[in-house]
Write a structure and sequence with these properties.
Length: 252
């Protein structure tokens, strides 16, 4: 197993109510190396907190997360984050920088802090960045400014930045939520290709049920911080999908 989550619980202080808000409630999940896992669930279901708990950005209240047979804690945090890439909904690019320099920011944690402040990287690092851009089909845009690109292209830059450090796990938090259907399919297809060809495990938060069915090895349904199902795409039906989305529909 590349990842094993045991009884994971995460609470946030709620100053308006006497009880703390439970973002994740007794999560148990095992993920094999190279799997593409989609996490489905409405807004507020705990999807983002789950990813942030996996890469150590959130401290957990109960349970444990084992990544590459190492418990995610302060002692192992630098190793975990060096082997984990993150892809965001809003891309998190620096608009006035070139595409290649945005990709190179993915190496900041492993480079000289002083040199990286001025975007001074070695020839080998620049070759790594160009290779990452070639992987996502944007080699010809390497020296364009980031704000000259379309939304789908900007997300591909975000993916190139995430894979430049050669992670073994990619965490994608709603990577297609801001994109049109064509770009959404292209990005999800690219992530699947990267998972298959580079043997990278991917956990991808999604709202789009159709994309989850097409590209996932397994689909996790999350609602109110609890796992409601773990299914293969072929096992999903309307009743199962409604078990996590129907409450949202009833409110409309």
């Amino acid at each position: 197993m590349i990842l094993e989550i045991k009884d994971l619980t995460k609470k946030y202080k709620n100053y308006l109510r006497p009880q703390n808000f439970v973002a994740l409630n007794n999560i148990n999940l095992k993920i094999k190396k190279g799997e593409f896992i989609s996490v489905l669930g409405p807004s507020g279901s705990g999807k983002t907190t789950l990813l942030r708990s996996i890469n150590g950005l959130e401290t957990i209240d109960k349970g444990e997360v084992l990544f590459d047979n190492k418990n995610i804690n302060q002692n192992n945090l630098s190793y975990v984050q060096s082997k984990t890439g993150m892809i965001f909904q809003e891309y998190n690019l620096i608009n006035n920088l070139s595409v290649i320099n945005n990709v190179l920011t993915g190496l900041v944690s492993s480079s000289s802090k002083l040199l990286s402040m001025f975007y001074i990287f070695s020839k080998q690092q620049r070759l790594q960045a160009l290779h990452s851009l070639e992987t996502v089909g944007l080699l010809d845009k390497s020296y364009n400014r980031a704000d000259e690109l379309s939304g789908g292209q900007r997300q591909r830059v975000g993916i190139a930045r995430a894979i430049i450090k050669k992670p073994i796990l990619l965490l994608a938090d709603e990577p297609v939520a801001s994109l049109d259907p064509k770009a959404s399919n292209l990005i999800t297809n690219l992530l699947k290709k990267i998972s298959r060809e580079l043997k990278i495990t991917i956990i991808c938060n999604l709202h789009n049920i159709d994309l989850a069915k097409i590209y996932s090895d397994r689909v996790v349904g999350l609602l109110n911080g609890s796992i409601k199902f773990i299914k293969k795409p072929s096992e999903l039906n309307e009743k199962i999908i409604n078990s996590i989305f129907q409450k949202n529909e009833e409110k409309k």
